[in-house]
Amino acid sequence: MAKLTKIKFDDYMPLRDVIFNTLRDAIVSGELKPGERLMEVSLAEKMGVSRTPVREAVRKLEMEGLVKMTPRKGTHVAELSVKDIIDVLEIRAALDKLATKLAAEKIGKDELRRLENIHKQYISSLKKENLAAAIRKDVEFHEAIYNASGNNKLVGVAGNLREQIYRFRVIYMKDFSNAEDVLKEHEQILKSIEEGNCEEAGRLAEEHIIHQQRSIIERM
User: Fold this and answer.
1) CA-to-CA distance for 15 and 185, rounded, in angstroms?
2) pLDDT score, position 3
3) What's the CA gap between 59 and 53, in Å, rounded?
4) How far apart, in Å, are the Cα atoms of 61 and each of 23, 38, 70, 76, 124?
5) Residue 7 has what pLDDT?
6) What is the rounded distance in angstroms from the CA atom of residue 174 to the CA atom of residue 160?
7) Which of 58, 97, 161, 189 is the most exposed place for a label (fewest CB within 10 A)?
8) Rg of the chain over CA atoms, in angstroms?
9) Residue 67's beta-bridge partner residues?
10) Chain-centre distance of CA 53, in angstroms?
């Protein structure tokens, strides 16, 4: 089992939610690996809590599709199948295409400046060979585009896929072999948004996700 440590209590968040966030982060980051068994007693001991909030957190993780509970076999981190990847990233490709197209049309000066800054921070992360930071900036880059789309419903729909997408992103960027590809594709997307080229921006965003899908499937 992954090296989970005692959690830090949050005065403003129920304990079960703190545990849920801790376990979810461990799963999406790959610390808890697909197929790994989750035992309530062991998890509770490692995090320094009782079994009840752990049980509640695990049930919530199951509802999000991150955990699978099987009678007589116990609870395991949900496996990732090729079909899972295709299903989720097909949706994400369509959403990113729309969000980026809208962003190219509607983005304001402050939003554009933020997007450019995130892109520079991504480059800085690569130079420092900080993979975790690069992944965070990749996430922020796309979130900034969604926010610039001006469509709150679109932002919400994409948010429902956030955890599953993050798991795929970790696989895609688990080393630096794809980081330069991401950089080049981000640069092209950013340029199209800066120029207000809606159709080109949408097309590039869609291709960006399709490229990730192919690479992830090859890795698996």
Assistant:
1) 41
2) 61
3) 10
4) 8, 11, 14, 11, 34
5) 67
6) 23
7) 161
8) 19
9) 77
10) 25
Decide if 207 contacts 177 (C-beta within 8 A): no
In the three-class reduction of DSSP (H, G, I as helix; E, B as strand; rest coil), residue 192 is classed as helix
**What are the structural domains, with CATH classification, of the chain?**
15-77 (1.10.10.10), 82-219 (1.20.120.530)
Please report, rounded to a whole number, the percentage of residues in the chain having pLDDT higher than 90: 60
32 and 76 in contact (C-beta within 8 Å)?
A: no
The token pair at 94 is 């369509």
pLDDT digits 0-9 by tens, 81-109: 899 889 999 999 999 999 999 999 999 99
Measured between alpha carbons, how far is 53 from 56 in angstroms, rounded to an integer?
5
The predicted structure's pLDDT at residue 167 = 77
**pLDDT of 55 over the 60 cut:** yes
From residue 213, alpha-carbon distances to 35, 53, 56, 106, 165 in Å are: 21, 36, 33, 28, 11
**3-class secondary-structure state, position 219:** helix
- Token pair, residue 141, equals 């880059």
**What average pLDDT does range 105-120 have in this prediction?**
97
Report the alpha-carbon distance of residue 103 to residue 215 in Å, rounded.
26
